[in-house]
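Collaborator request, handled under Task 6.
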Amino acid sequence: MRPLAVIGNVNVDLIMGPVAPWPKAGTETVVDHDDLRVGGQAGNTGLAWQALGVDFEIAANVGDDQFGHWLREAFGARADKWPVRPESTTLSVGMTHPDGERTFFTTRGHLPRFSLADVLSVLDGKRLGGGYALLCGSFLTDDLTGEYDAFFDWAASHDIAVALDTGWPIQGWTPANCKAAREWLARCDLALFNEVETVTLAGTPAPVDAARRIQSMMKKGATAVVKRGPDGAIAIGPGGALVRAAAPNVKVVDTIGAGDVFNAAFLATLAQDQPLSASLEAATQVASRAISTLPRNYGEPMYPREVTHERA
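Structure tokens returned to the collaborator:
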């Protein structure tokens, strides 16, 4: 199996709901469900890999408070070298709605101060050589985002294929954010965007055409994946062929982190040198199971047991 790493945002999620209708100012609403859990794109991906029995590295930082200690404990030895920032840990409060969608309120917290130096203090480029690194949370990690060119240079020097999932920009997909994302994609081997993000960046409403346009912006031999929720997923591979995977019909319980779970299963399968079709199918199946179970279930581990994590 090729080595795997995820780099980006790990924060605390407090999920509550469902809420309907949205409450008026000055009122109090009692909800049926609450869940305090590890969140953020990188955090969700790491949790899915742990559940699937996949060995991986995770580069993140935390705030200097009880939440920061709690996040480190969730990842054990993998978090030993995570830098601790003097800021409070970033907290997201997610309010769920009856249709499975959600609304987030997020503090800035520690995430903007995550830097390239933090990444390199955790990851060993030689150990990750020939593998995949998922770069995520781009619009929350200000310091690192400003150093993306240097990060891409580092990854290329160690033959690490970079997968990108920026997440949704706080300001929305402004012209400036679209321009930045396209520039990052030009240095990437894999794009893992949802349908709205893909058609927005590509400037065309048809998902397949948009995926082809995204793939054309990327490195030679790159793959563009489009996550389409209940419509499954599509991908344009290195040869330009279209690959599809249908999503099973499930009753949605919680969609939070669905795209991150998809990313985790997709990359874990790809790291076994499985074809694109198998990776897309595995990702769709695992994500569908995750969003339809409470407590969340990812299915059977992909490997007989998790490989022991070693430190250099």
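The cover message to the collaborator said: "DSSP finds eleven helices and 14 strands in the chain. The two ends are 19 Å apart (CA to CA). Please let us know whether this matches your experimental observations."
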